[in-house]
Amino acid sequence: MNKLTLADVVRRHAAERGAQHYLHYQDEWTTFDQLHERTSRVAQALIRSGVEKGGRVALLDKNRPECFEVMFAASKCAAAYVPLNWRLAAPEIGDILRDAEPTILFVGDEFADKIAGLAETMPGLKIIALDPHGKTSFESYADWLGQAPAVDPQVPATAEDMVVLMYTSGTTGKPKGAMLSSRSLIGHMEWTARVWSYDAETVQLVPMPLFHIGGTSMALQSIVLGARTVLLAEVNPAQMLQIISDFRVTNMLLVPAIIQYLVDAPSCATTDWSNVRSLIYGAAPISDTLLRKAMQALQCNFIQIYGMTEHCGCVSLLSPEDHDPERRAELLASCGKPLPWVEVAIVDPATLQPLAQGEVGEIWVRSQQLMSGYWRQPEMTAATLTPEGWLRTGDAGYLDQGGYLYIRDRVKDMIISGGENIYPAEIENVLMRHPAIADAAVIGVPHEKWGETPKAIVVRASAQPADEQQIVAFCRTQLAGFKCPTTVEFVDALPRNPSGKILKRELREPYWQGHVRRVS
């Protein structure tokens, strides 16, 4: 079992390969020595700012080197890093900050407006501007760092301590923070490195957001193994294709929507894919048509993964050998086999009894990668993690005779759109505030680019006019854009069972007919 902390990873690399490059960002390379020196300074400044062992440190911005500086520095303080989703609306960010109660928040200039009012509502929160010449009055990162010494504080910590507090949407519309330890984040990486063809020569491209487990876990994969990472602030298909050629990229993780962008880009045909060892994809449904088209166009190994924040990423994978559209086409609808150390059980969600091979039930997983629980939510933790150590995923699926895992639906109503987890209850709470809406339900429906997208099914209030555009616009004032319904359907009544629960499966069924892969 892994006994290293994230801080230990930096210390080890500085000692063994200090002069080696670890990160490229905006035309500049950074070495492991520089990472160690920088994170020690940041850790000293965090302690000076009142961050104690077990404390929280938050950051709100797009991908940038400071994300790693703050995360590893927090580990050196035995504190936890809280990456914030910059796509969220200001009220949503406020909810997370009030829940996490960080001592300090680092914010990029682009998102300063979202937290402008927090200084008054959270007087104990210190806010630091990451950009040196920003438009805010907050103290700058450089000034805050000041003359902090490059001395590792060596605060005692273990691999079991929470090192990242990563938030996902809650089924009740409230955020929930998954408590992730160093053990759960990095304990499995040496094995996955062999499967994903990672080694000392790896050059990984990371365009996916670091506030997601996908972006964070893949970036950590490279760092833990002492490889190199090319980091992008955000997805830019043309730039990505140029980097793949210029930097001889070997590995990357992409969601299907981004794969679609790359395949459709004019420069895709002239991109040098010869160095790419594996393209890992997941986090959203992918159509059979897109997968076949991408495999033909990109000419590299494809690996599908199924995972979740609560499991620190990957549960199962479909290997390159299983991506055979001619001889093994049926496997393309699966999400592969569980990793060797991951146990998977299919359980009847009503009786909690195991189901036979081929029967559809709730997917339960157990491994060393599990989160410790949900931050300050013991009831939700108890409902998700069993006393025997199983994680109830909320996904419905089955295992075939070959041990391949197939996902058919969700026990819970969560929607995954372009890699973002969206809970209908959160959107429904907003819809019900609209004066023209008497009743509402939100479901996920197929979408060619994003895999699925939220659709609102609404009952109008009497004598209150409402149209689709007005309702969507109203949602955008309260929610992040990716959570808002893209379409609205008006009905006279919503179908309910005798206890009054909306029959969402009945609402979804017409839209998913003919779709084998309902989730990924």
Outline the structure in words.
By secondary structure, the protein is of the alpha/beta class. Helix 3 (65-76) links the parallel strand 3 (56-60) and strand 4. The strands form six sheets. The protein has a nine-stranded mixed β-sheet with strand order 2-1-11-10-12-13-14-15-16, sandwiched between helices. The protein has a five-stranded parallel β-sheet with strand order 4-3-5-6-7. The chain has a four-stranded antiparallel β-sheet with strand order 17-18-20-21, with no helix packed on it. 28% of the residues lie in helices and 25% in strands. Helix 1 runs antiparallel to helix 2 and helix 2 (32-48) packs across helix 3 (65-76).
* Intertermini distance: 29 Å
Counting DSSP E segments of at least 2 residues, the number of strands comes to 26
Order of strands, widest sheet: 2-1-11-10-12-13-14-15-16
Question: What is the global morphology?
Answer: globular
**In terms of structural class, how would the helical and strand content be classed?**
alpha/beta
Overall pLDDT score: 90
Helix content, binned percent? 25-40%
Count of separate DSSP helical elements: 16
Q: What's the main sheet like? A: 9 strands, mixed
Low-confidence segments, given as residue ranges, are: none
- Radius of gyration over alpha carbons? 23 Å
